[in-house]
């Protein structure tokens, strides 16, 4: 039986823009009404006001950790202006999590930027790293006692978003149906382009600056999270795999060397042939985002991240499935956990598993893909825990032993 480390984190993850609502000073809020085919986040699921209820549902189910983000655009709505009220709000979230027995895993940047930052050049502007460092310095005021901090979420996807943002213009109505989130990639669309490594290296500098600040001012373990695609080569295409994987993933994993942990985020797997990444197969078994049903991806991703970072501890910061069938969510997650446990058996230092996501939410321009352990009525905001929440809580309470019992 797999032996997990004492204090193994069992939890779920969220992102502020996807759940809070009315993030009016962010660049995404500005994009949404001007991009035909993009749904608006609006009130989202009102977790800005209902976070205590959301956390209590996780804790009551048996989970012991909650990953959530703090929103730069709320804390610094104008350059140099710090909202003390926003800082106090996020400190209350930290305290609430701790009071409920949940270890807070705090993310400092999850895709969205302050509108002023993006309008003045964003991550390509010469002062971008200094601006981010200043924000992180401000954020450390409320991080006392926080054990885990993620600096930047999925910088490889953020680099792609920044590249898209350089030419993002309102589209004509006849193109409205073509908008899809950069996080939604499957059989309905071609493979996403590779992120710009120039932007990627800028983000690596920002991450390392944030790491310096966190080490100077807090006792938290710091790292960033990487979207790991669990790519594998078709016969004879190992060199092409290395080429493709470097710009999409390894640049960011290599930048994590020296961190306290690496956040691994993986959902599915794809192959690489002589032409590059092979699109997901057109299959009725694909998820609501078009991805192939590949619970083994997490094991592939963890092994590669462990090797590429030089063996720094792994924290699964996202893993899940977009489905409206909760029995399928349980089936996917149970298989994914078995693959994860196999990496632990092989000696990889895995510190926790945080499911994506706690609640059905706004999927970057779409509402249809449902990843949550908790359903939400978007008119009343009433929360409805799914069977998968109780199931994962039972697995967590047993330290994973319940999973073995279910398979015996």
Write a concise synopsis of the structure shown:
This protein is of the alpha/beta class and 408 residues long. It contains 14 helices and 13 strands.
Structural features, described:
This protein has 408 residues and is α/β, with parallel strands linked by helices. It has a single domain, classed as Alpha-Beta Barrel (TIM Barrel), CATH 3.20.20. Helices cover 40% and strands 14% of the residues. The chain has 14 helices and 13 strands. The strands form three sheets. It has an eight-stranded parallel β-barrel with strand order 1-2-3-4-5-7-10-11, surrounded by eight helices. Strands 6-8-9 form a three-stranded mixed β-sheet, covered by helices on one side. A two-stranded antiparallel sheet has the order 12-13. The longest helix has 21 residues. It is globular and about 55 Å long. It starts with 8 loop residues before the first strand and ends with a helix.
Main sheet makeup: 8 strands, parallel, barrel
- The tally of beta strands, per DSSP, is 13
Number of H- or I-type helical stretches: 14
Class, according to the CATH hierarchy?
Alpha Beta
Radius of gyration over all CA atoms, rounded: 20 Å
CATH homologous superfamily caption: Glycosidases
- Could you tell me the CATH topology label: TIM Barrel
How many domains make up the 3D coordinates?
1
- Structural class of the helix and strand makeup? alpha/beta
- Output the helix-strand order: EHHHEHHEHHEHHEEHEEEHEHEEEHH
**Beta content:** 5-15%
State the share of residues found in helices, binned by percent.
25-40%
> Strand order across the biggest sheet?
1-2-3-4-5-7-10-11
What would the principal axes of the Cα set say about the shape? globular
């Amino acid at each position: 039986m797999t032996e997990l480390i004492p204090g193994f984190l069992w939890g779920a993850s969220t992102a502020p823009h996807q759940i809070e609502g009315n993030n009016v000073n962010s660049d995404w809020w500005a994009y949404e009404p001007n991009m035909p085919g993009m749904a608006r986040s609006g009130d989202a699921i009102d977790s800005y006001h209902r976070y205590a209820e959301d956390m209590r549902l996780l804790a009551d189910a048996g989970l012991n950790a909650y990953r959530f983000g703090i929103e730069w655009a709320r804390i610094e709505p104008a350059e140099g202006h710090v909202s003390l009220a926003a800082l106090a709000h996020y400190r209350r979230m930290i305290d609430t999590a701790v009071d409920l027995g949940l270890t807070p895993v705090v993310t400092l940047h999850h895709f969205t930027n302050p509108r002023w930052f993006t309008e003045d050049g964003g991550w390509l502007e010469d002062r971008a790293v200094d601006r981010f460092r200043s924000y992180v310095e401000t954020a450390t005021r409320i991080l006392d006692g926080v054990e885990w901090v993620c600096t930047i979420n999925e910088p490889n996807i953020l680099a792609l978003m920044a590249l898209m943002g350089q030419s993002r213009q309102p589209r004509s109505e006849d193109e409205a149906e073509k908008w899809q989130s950069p996080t939604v990639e499957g059989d309905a669309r071609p493979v996403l382009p590779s992120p710009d490594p120039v932007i990627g290296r800028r983000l690596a500098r920002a991450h390392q600056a944030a790491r310096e600040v966190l080490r100077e001012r807090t006792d938290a373990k710091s790292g960033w999270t990487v979207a790991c695609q669990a790519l594998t080569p078709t016969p004879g295409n190992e060199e092409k795999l290395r080429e493709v994987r470097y710009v999409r993933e390894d640049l960011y994993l290599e930048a994590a060397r020296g961190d306290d942990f690496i956040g691994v985020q993986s959902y599915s797997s794809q192959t690489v042939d002589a032409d590059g990444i092979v699109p997901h197969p057109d299959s009725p078994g694909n998820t609501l985002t078009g991805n192939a049903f590949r619970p083994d991806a997490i094991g592939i991703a963890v092994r590669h991240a462990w090797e590429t970072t030089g063996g720094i501890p792994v924290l699964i910061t996202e893993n899940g499935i977009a489905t409206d069938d909760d029995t399928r969510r349980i089936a996917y997650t149970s298989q994914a956990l078995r693959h994860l446990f196999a990496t632990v058996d092989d000696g990889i230092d895995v510190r926790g598993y945080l499911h994506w996501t706690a609640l059905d939410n706004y999927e970057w321009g779409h509402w249809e893909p449902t990843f949550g352990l908790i359903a939400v009525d978007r008119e009343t905001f009433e929360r409805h825990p799914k069977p998968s929440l109780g199931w994962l809580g039972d697995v967590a309470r047993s330290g994973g032993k319940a999973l073995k019992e279910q398979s015996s």
